[in-house]
Write a structure and sequence with these properties.
By secondary structure, the protein is mainly beta. About 10% of the residues lie in helices and about 40% in strands. The longest helix has 5 residues. It has one domain: CheA-289, Domain 4 (OB fold (Dihydrolipoamide Acetyltransferase, E2P)).
Length: about 160
């Protein structure tokens, strides 16, 4: 897998989740774990997208806010919010989402290009769109999200880098 393009023909399952009533997905092979949102330790002077860090089995994991990443307004944490622990070629990090929906079996023919009508802030992390009869799910490229310039803050402070 390259850092810029996902090979959708090899994606067999997606972890789907919701942010601001929109459905997103991450290939299951990029998901390490899904956890409840624990108390976050804030990191002074961090970018808005970085909500803090958690201690997960004695490893300090930076936690990103999916709402901030996609340009949505922040809301107080609710019981259904989860952190998806994701691993890329560059780093392990958590992603706070409004709720996790399901693990979805995929069919390669149902992937399509990202529509130009989506916001440019969303487009920078999106790879493809997955269509079912009732749903449109935006597929994240974890490597793009975790290699973003905002992540330089994490690398500079040695949080969970490889």
């Amino acid at each position: 897998m390259t850092t810029d393009k996902l090979k959708v023909s090899t994606i067999e399952q997606l972890v789907t989740f919701e942010v601001e009533h929109e459905e997103f997905a991450i290939p299951i092979e990029d998901v390490y774990q899904i956890i409840f949102v624990p108390k976050l330790m804030t990191v002074p002077n961090s970018p808005e997208m970085i909500k803090g860090v958690i201690n997960l089995r004695n490893e300090i994991i930076p936690v990103l806010d999916a709402r901030a990443a996609f340009g949505f307004s922040s809301i107080p944490h609710a019981r259904q919010h989860r952190i998806i622990i994701i691993q890329s070629e560059f780093i392990t990090a958590g992603l706070i989402v409004d709720r996790v929906i399901q693990v979805l079996q995929t069919a390669p023919a149902k992937f399509d290009h990202v529509p130009s009508a989506t916001s440019s802030q969303q487009n920078q992390y999106l790879e493809k769109v997955y269509k079912t009869d009732e749903r449109i799910i935006m597929l994240l490229n974890v490597n793009k999200m975790l290699n973003d310039q905002n992540m330089n803050f994490i690398r500079k402070h040695n949080y969970s880098t490889d």
